[in-house]
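FAQ: What does a ligand-bound record look like?

Like this one, built around zinc ion:
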Amino acid sequence: MYYLSRLLSTASGRALAALALLAVPVRAVTLVEDGVARCVIMLPAGVQPLLQPAAEDLQACLRKMSGAEVPIIVGEAPTSVAAVLLGVTRDGAIAALSPEEAESTWPDGYVLASGGRDLALLAGRPEGVRNAVYGLLEDHLGCHWFTPGEIGESIPTRRTVDVVLATGRVSVKPAFELRAPWYNGNAVPYEDGKSVEVAQITKWGIRNRAGGLRGYAGQDWVSPFPKELQEKEPGLQAMLNGKRAPRGAEGQVCMSYPRATEIAVNYLISVFAAHPELEYYTFSPNDNDCYCQCPGCMALGKTPSERVLRFSNAVAEGVAAKCPGKGITILPYSSTIEPPGQGSKGAGNLYPVICSYAMEQVRPKTDALPWCQTYRERVSGWMQILPRAWSYDYIGWYPGPWPLFRKLETEQNWYRSLRFTGLMPEYIDRNMGTDIHMWLTWKLGWDREARLDDLLRAFYPAYYGQAAGTMQGIFEAFERQMLGVGGSGEYMEVPRLYPVALVEEALANVSRVRQLADPVLAARLGRDENCLRLLRLFLDAYTFGGQYRRSGNAEDKAKAATACEAYLQLADSLKGTLTVGRTASGFVKAGLDALHDPGTEFTKAGAFIYQDSLDDGGKAFQAKSRSGYFITTYGLSLTPRAIGEIHYEMRATDALTFKDARLHNMYLALPAEGHNSVEVSRDGGTTWVVAYRDVRMAGGSLDYDLTAQIAGARSFLLKLKVVNGGEECLAIDNWAISGTLE
Ligand SMILES: [Zn+2]
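The answer part, i.e. the structure of the complex:
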């Protein structure tokens, strides 16, 4: 008693740190004895938006554990009982850490100290005290929150609750300064249950000590450089193809404009003045590659990465001069993913977020695959000039389980070896295993001593009880299969990653163990079973849809439509149950719509559009005829020397005629030693007019006008032809036509 009250009422941080070194006899702090509360939970006075809910959670957990009702108090602790002190002393004063201890637990770690009967939770910031509550519950009392909602909670029961800190004082520093895995807007559950379910997911993250540095990292040059400002200061306007124009989120700005740095710095100063609690803020460019091409900008560096880094450095230095301790994010991504050349150097207050962009998404980044090697070379290049980096991985690509737990540990170790200090993976969808993946990310991101095997050894029995062995077997079977196949995150990979036989075996096993389970376990297994049922329907929808695209067979179309409808019905019935996200539902809905697509006949005056990704054949079955091409993953391909032709009949009904039209989003190959052409016939194919010949149409935003060839026609044939050279090629990837009918 004496020790702790002295300790906590000591004003001097140095004296406090010195006292901490004095050995005190290790004794258990008893919170509950034989079902009776032997402590109070004490909060600092005043509004405590972070600590109040944590205190209530601690109270609720102790109740679930032992049946005891522990009071939460503010003011002064009664001398008759022990106190769990949340950043406060026994007599109600704020309890602070010494600067040394605040530093050694930075940014949101904590100290747990026991002395006399009391247990003190101390940290440099309220988030740290809150993390201490959950560290106490998880690391010392065995509570876990594996998945969101009550269903994911695991609270061991016992009549007496003691806390023993081996040395009387435990100092905890998170392994990563930022632990921010997040479910994006499509991965979170459905709109109508949104507020409740999102709140549950947020609470789940807090309980797992998510967080770290405070700030925001979205892609945003619109706020510092709004369009209106660009109109007033035309020098800020980015030059594209020789023309300057004010642009919003679809563009960027002129980085070499003399006032650009000052404008950005002033904007960031105003952000930090309005929100002094923030430690970093975004200076990540808008989500496009339209960087300024003016001579001044081109002189900033050889590549977009070099130019953006140089500009960002100037802004970072301006921020550091006016707001010491504050930093800005940058985003090596897309056209800025290649590391700048030797001689570049990142400012000390840059927080670069490096995207795992356009690469292997299933096998680990340490794999020997060429694009993993390319990625590693890029990142290593960046890390030679950066003070730190945060990783940005994409998780949950497919409408099936995501059990890639080994990959997670391997990659986190690799990141740490490269001096990464933050984790910001984006979860694209939510499905069986994504919650566990996120839980593991938090655990590995918090505790540098944590090991995947130990975490899984704790997880399987605590969450799956008697079904642990079966479920571990299912997760591992999917993990093996996926790692064996690999993938880039495309839906066409789904049948190979999740073969029907494996899915059916998993379904049968989950269903079998669910029969024997108690209600909580049955609910957990029910979630997984529903995810697998959805996957099984997806496989039918995808496979029969693909067969129909090749054969035009009505029976295949009916089977695909039935599977799509069953998928959507089941997904719909699961709204509000926190079972799955909705990304895959959107894909299935689009697939169902495509099955009923009216094709190339247009019935209304005004704008018309027809477009096709041709992925796995797409809507090629709607063409009037097709020869030479064969269907591959991304479109229509040709064997060496083959000639491919596909004819579409574009028809207007009633008294309508085509007024104008253009091709866009075109990918039409021009093979080496080969040819291509776009041709139009207005007489049913007797005579053809060549609109374009030997033009490489490589996607992007270029339009190819057809108005001269089609104006006034009620219908016309459109031919997309490729004469291949000596190597197999993807001849048409995607294409689109739009225009006006009158
Ligand atoms: Zn410029």
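Follow-up question: can I read anything off the structure? Yes, for example: Residues 2-172 form a domain with the Chitobiase; domain 2 fold (CATH 3.30.379.10).
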